[in-house]
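Work Package 3 (structural annotation) set out to generate three-dimensional models for the target panel prioritized at the project kickoff. During this period the team completed the workflow that converts sequence records into discrete structure tokens, so that structures can be stored uniformly alongside our sequence database. As a representative example, we reproduce one entry of 158 residues exactly as it appears in the project archive.
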Amino acid sequence: MANHHAGLVIRHALFRLPVRLGRAPIPRVVYTVPELASVGLTEAQARAGHATVRILRWTFADNDRARAEKATEGHIKAIVTPRGRILGCSIAGSHAGELIMPWVLAMTQGLKVSDLAGLVYPYPTFSEVTKSAAVEFLKPSAQNPWVRRLVSFVSRLG
């Protein structure tokens, strides 16, 4: 945050450009073992401010890169609205400081969790925990009988 503020001061002092602090979500990282990173609302804050929220979780133990590096301790937890707007995300585990950035970008740009689920992620990488958590949002709609019938029908068409 101090680096961000310093950039604003330099921009204003040297170039006389107008600056605003803005309302962009600010990521927070604690460099411990494991790393802790978060952005946006916590689960308690989200529940206090919204009638309904969905909690999406994914564990590092289910990530192939984490298994390969023997860094399986950790998880990701995203808090979203029923329509997929991202309210917050917390990550505990290896590289959490880097893994929080797609969530920061999505929140800043007003993207939905389904947008994160639709990205192509390199394999095997820790970043796949983001995709896996985001795909959790889509699972209930895949269980809908009408969706299943539609998929079955389309697959028969070839």
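The chain is about 45% helix and 20% strand.
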